[in-house]
Amino acid sequence: MLSLSTLKTLLFTVGPLLVPKLITWYRTQKVKAVTAPVPVQRVPGPVSKSLTILFISAVLALVSTLPYFAPENIFTTTSSRLQTSNDVLFTRLNLNRGVSGLTEADKILRPKIASMNARLLYFTYGPDVLTNCPFCNSEQPTTYFYYALPSITLPHLLHTFALGLATSSAISGAFGKRWRNVVTFLGIGLAVVECCLFGSYEWKANARAVRPEQYVHFFWRMRVFRGIVIALADVFVAGLLWLSSTNRMFVIPPSAAERMETAMRVLENARSKVHAVGIMRNVVVRDEGLRRKAEAYWRKEGQVMGEVMGEVMDEREVVEGVRNALSGRIQVAKVEDEARKYAEGITNFQELEVT
Question: Which of the two ends of the chain, N or C, has the fewest CB atoms closer than 10 A to its terminal CB?
Answer without folding.
Answer: C
